[in-house]
Design goal:
This protein is of the alpha/beta class. The protein is 39% helix and 24% strand. The protein is built from eleven helices and nine strands. The longest helix has 18 residues, at 182-199.
Amino acid sequence: MNSEPLIDLAHISVAFRSPAGRVAALQDVSLCVQAGERVGLVGESGSGKSTMARVLLGLQKPDQGTVRVGGVNPFALSAAQRKSFRRSIQLVFQDPYGSLNPRLTIGQALSEVLAVHDLAAPEERPDRVAALLEQVGLNPALAPRYPHEFSGGQRQRIALARALAVEPRVLVADEPVSALDVSVQVQILNLLADLQRQRGLALLLIAHDLAVVRYCCDRVYVMHQGQVVEQGPTAEVLDHPRHPYTANLLAAVPDLDAALAAVEPGS
């Protein structure tokens, strides 16, 4: 691995105002991901996962701590520099339908990304769109269709194609398969893993499903009440949890091995 992480969040703290006073969303949290590494971020609702993602994406400035993505602090950039930064890190949403413009065909949606970032001349965009669709396992002939004409799994493939269009270095996947049937989940997870390996991306997978994290991730961070309570190699953390909260998360899954088997190929 490289000595310098591609993602490096150090001692991040974030608090929000509420009628009851200031509420700590993150408390002295650190996280790092190397290029080509797949890291899971798990915890129950309200644990701070989403706030962590917003800080990483440059959408939420921390009260304390430092943020580096590829050695760059997104909060120290000018407007023009932030546009370039947006290319380096892309988000895949939980609900692909909600993240796609229903008035644009998928070909138009992908072309729009290329146009905004000046990645291809107008005459080159159809070929680039076709190549992107092929990379995510979709027929380029489907480009004239609208989002509502696709299944949930197909829409998530389109969302992946859009994220990859700008050739990012980091991919943040926020519950990317939780809205899909189990039979489709494994297809999307395998596609995500293949694309991550082929492009050498750093992947941060935010999830509540421990079977998905075990299947996909090299390392895992466990969050509880705005803090990282445990981290380490995925198998080690899930097989031999050291923190009571991690053990409680595992206990909430009726049978982790059965859940894992449900998303493995051939199941």
